[in-house]
Amino acid sequence: MNTLISTPLCNLRIAKFPSTFCSIPHSVSLHSQFLYKPFQCRANPSDLIDSKTAQEPEQELSNRATEIDEETDTASEVSATKASSGPKIDQDLKKVVQKTASTFAPRASTATKNPAVPGSTLYSVFEIQGYASMLLGGALSFNLIFPSNEPDIWRLMGMWSVWMFTIPSLRARDCSKNEKEALNYLFLLIPLLNVIIPFFWKSFAVVWSADIVAFFAMYAWKAEASHCSTHGVPLVRNIAELPQDNYGRPGLSHITIAGSLLHGMKEVEVWLQTFAPGSRTPIHRHSCEEVFVVLKGSGTLYLATNSHLKYPGQPQEFPIFTNSTFQIPVNDAHQASVELKRSCSLDREIKQTSEETKAIYVWNTNQGEDLQVLVIISRPPVKVFIYDDWFVPHVAANLKFPYYWDEQCFQTPTKDEL
Ligand SMILES: *[C@@H]1O[C@H](CO)[C@@H](O)[C@H](O)[C@H]1NC(C)=O
Predict the structure, then answer these.
(1) Is the confidence at residue 96, as pLDDT, over 60?
(2) What per-residue confidence (pLDDT) applies to 383?
(3) Which residues are 411's β-sheet partners?
(4) Sign of CA dihedral 191, 196, 199, 204
């Protein structure tokens, strides 16, 4: 029976969105990959916001900044509205499901650390037991084992096998948060199916099949978000296989190489970003140190240099080029007092950081080439203040938190008592 099982579902998270991966040839070494091979998922210049000219007169700069940031603002408003209603209900539902599931299907072990960790024999035993009982249940409900013409106990057992054996077995493993959530939902959903379906269709086989469909549908749904789990992330990862996205920003390709929400980083976070010709970051600042390494292409860094104003002020321009590096200085406490006044929900976090960085933005002003940068930031996850233009007072900059690439994995911390 043991040979029936092969796929560890806990590994689902590794390969997500294969279609959006940048297809970099695997045979090329990392170094040359990033320095010389453009990402093939490079944005089409025609759908860029700023594809017109590479070098712009300074006056136009703030107009365009307003343009681009209006978009950003709309996006953040939308997400703010969503954040206030959707996740609240979602959170409550999750809690209820978690509570119910832990009451009626307690984990095998009450020890604080589940010994059935991935790779352990116990883990495999639970997994094999789970899928074997599923198949056995199928065979029983399809009348393949102990066949009879009566709706006997074996048929009934078969119909309930997923709920009675598969889910508890899988839940006994130390699996990812998402998988556990999927199992919790299934634990409540399957009895409903099993009770309701017989009213319409008196067939053990149909009920079992419906359970199986529900099982895999739930897994597929939860696997969507499962790359957020820090659980089971392989030590060595191929950057070309990491999820990349533009997060609604045309011309951008962002990969979180090592993230706080994605990979559990505590002190630093590393991004690989590619800007198509003409695209750029919004004018922004965040309270962290930031180091850029330009791997490929060229562009312009705009940095507000006067830290004594109440707004960023006219920025200074710095050409950036392949193999150049720059770090965004963190201001002294000067603006922190201003910050305290405007802080509301993030009071605690802002008080902790007594300094902040200067407003910057990076613009791929080279029409001919992608600009690829490696970005290292401190104190993740990043909290970004976005300016409509360089004369927006620091206190009026819009906070975007969680930032676009952190949205999907950001959760208000909840205790997982299972
Ligand atoms: C960038 O640096 C690498 C390693 O030092 C070097 O091989 C390469 O030629 C440089 N590229 C450019 C465009 O300067």
Answers:
(1) yes
(2) 87
(3) none
(4) negative
Q: Which atom of ligand 1 is nearest the CA belonging to 321?
A: 13
Tokens 């006997």 appear where?
Answer: 152
Rounded to an integer, the average pLDDT of 303-315 is: 83
> What whole-number distance in Å separates Cα of residue 285 and Cα of residue 385?
5
Residues 111-139, mean pLDDT to the nearest whole number: 86
Ligand 1 pocket, residues with Cβ under 6 angstroms: 322-323
Q: Which residues pair with 286 in a beta bridge?
A: 384
- pTM attached to this predicted model: 0.52
Q: In this structure, are residues 362 and 324 in contact, taking their beta carbons and an 8 Å threshold?
A: no
- Choose which residue among 294, 295, 322, 366 to substitute to test ligand 1 binding: the one with the highest number of ligand atoms within 8 A of its C-beta: 322
Burial class (CB in 10 A: 0-12, 13-18, 19+), 374: middle
Tell me which H or E stretch contains 342: helix 336-342
CB atoms within 10 A of CB 408: 17
pLDDT, mean of residues 299-308: 84
The string of DSSP codes covering 185-216 is HHHHHHHHHHHHHHHH---HHHHHHHHHHHHH
